[in-house]
Amino acid sequence: GAGVSQSPSNKVTEKGKDVELRCDPISGHTALYWYRQSLGQGLEFLIYFQGNSAPDKSGLPSDRFSAERTGGSVSTLTIQRTQQEDSAVYLCASSFQDLAGGEQYFGPGTRLTVT
Amino acid sequence: DAKTTQPNSMESNEEEPVHLPCNHSTISGTDYIHWYRQLPSQGPEYVIHGLTSNVNNRMASLAIAEDRKSSTLILHRATLRDAAVYYCILRDPGNQFYFGTGTSLTVIP
Predict the structure, then answer these.
(1) I need a labelling partner for A83 at 20 to 30 A (CA). Which of A20, B54, B63, B87 fits?
(2) Are A111 and A13 in contact (CB under 8 A)?
(3) Rounded CA gap, B106 and B104, in Å?
(4) Distances in whole angstroms, Cα of residue A83 to Cα of each of A59, A65, A86, A110
(5) B84 and B37 Cβ atoms separated by less than 8 Å
(6) pLDDT < 70: residue spans in chain B
(7) Around Cβ A92, how many Cβ atoms within 10 Å?
């Protein structure tokens, strides 16, 4: 079956521009997560959705970052006025439910480069 | 906040067992312990998880200390395909995620 997909796979943008990153979770998965991974670093949690609501936004690094999820499926992560420090791989994951013991399935990521 | 600590790197000979440690001394009673691994240029993949009891699956075993302040991921027979960064993660029902620094495992042929 289809796994988690993300688009675009690579994005190069100029400093100050806005970008939108998309995540298509596995069908039927109600929980969706966004992470960021800078070069050579571990994963940094950004935000989590249960259905369309985001009970935990604590990981968003600044108010330039926002995310939404509509229809309990596709999610978009928007970064406004991008900065060079936003350059990273943005990973999306989904799971059946928001269970602390649930397995997360990760997408391949979007590599964002801000020039 | 609960955190995990792991060695930065480890080496293992091929076909030998590997024990990857993780310390989580501030773990709470409701935190689950997850392990994921990340191969080069790929997203992380689930390995195993547990709460209190030791766990086994086709990929690995998870040994959890009685006081739950540490755990060990055991790969019973390392292969070259097991070379990856292994992350020890705590997850609580409040949905906070705490990733360790990760251990980069090198498997020597």
Answers:
(1) B87
(2) no
(3) 7
(4) 17, 11, 5, 16
(5) yes
(6) 1-2, 93-100
(7) 28
Maximum Cα–Cα distance across chain B: 43
Retrieve residue B100's tokens: 């360790």
Among candidates B43, B95, B102 on the partner chain, residue whose Cβ is nearest the Cβ of A106:
B43
Cβ-based interface (< 8 Å): residues of A facing B: 4, 33, 42-45, 48, 55-56, 58-59, 91, 93, 98, 100-101, 103-109
pLDDT of residue A92: 95
- C-beta of residue A32 within 8 angstroms of C-beta of residue A47: no
CB contact under 8 A, A55 and B97: no
From chain A, pick out residues whose CB is under 8 angstroms from the CB of B91. Answer: 100-101
User: What pLDDT score was predicted for residue B16?
Assistant: 96
B5-32 b/e with 16+ CB inside 10 Å = b? ebeeebebeeeeebebebbbeebeeebb
DSSP labels for B3-67? --B--SEEEEETTS-EEEEEE-TT--TT-EEEEEEE-TTS--EEEEEESSS-EE-SS-EEEE-TT
